[in-house]
Design a protein that fits this description.
By secondary structure, the protein is mostly helical. It has helices at residues 12-18, 22-28, 44-50, 55-62.
Length: 65
């Protein structure tokens, strides 16, 4: 069993640097701010809350990459 690659306390910027393929997943979920400056310091959990998304469902999709 492999460990989850991403966690909800990682910033969007960290996630993008670790695996650029997260961008299409986030964008298809409605999070189109992957290139905005706040994405560099905002955690996935914070971004999900702002966008009204379920962070656990988003993490599940991201960790399928």
């Amino acid at each position: 069993m492999r460990m989850a690659e991403f966690t909800k306390d990682m910033t969007i910027g960290e996630m993008l640097r670790k695996n650029p393929e997260v961008a299409p997943v986030l964008m298809s979920a409605g999070m189109h701010c992957v290139g905005c400056p706040s994405a560099q310091g905002e955690t996935l959990e914070e971004a999900a809350m702002v966008h009204g998304m379920n962070v656990d469902e988003l993490l599940e999709a991201l960790n399928q990459l």
